[in-house]
Amino acid sequence: MPRKKSQKARETIELLEGLVDIGIRLYQFFDQEVQAGHTKESSPVVEDPYRILGLPANATLAQVKKRYRQLSWVYHPDLPDGFTEAMKRVNLAYEQIVKDKKKA
Questions:
Q1: Which of 84, 71, 76 is nearest to 40 (CA)?
Q2: pTM above 0.70, yes or no
Q3: Where are the chain's structural domains?
Q4: Do residues 22 and 54 touch, judged by C-beta distance below 8 A?
Q5: Which fold does the domain 7-103 belong to in CATH?
Q6: If you average pLDDT over residues 56-61, what whole number do you get?
Q7: Residue 78 gets which letter from DSSP?
């Protein structure tokens, strides 16, 4: 007889599915950037940091930090499938948003 999934297991599965979705969207975004020839060297300023993090422009600092931590788990270079360039872009976007929020 199959066991029922606990609430915690369902929440974990939903979180992982969300992270996979974010990962797919970011992979597609970074793939487009590479194909277009945009690199960190040619474009040191992040054009739209909210788009890179997958957040609305009116996101709070808490939402930004939460998304940054989620993406660090997906793109960290030390992980087996880590994406160094993607993590650099995520870091630049996060730093720019935090800097702009602190100025305001």
A1: 84
A2: no
A3: 7-103
A4: yes
A5: Helix Hairpins (1.10.287)
A6: 92
A7: T
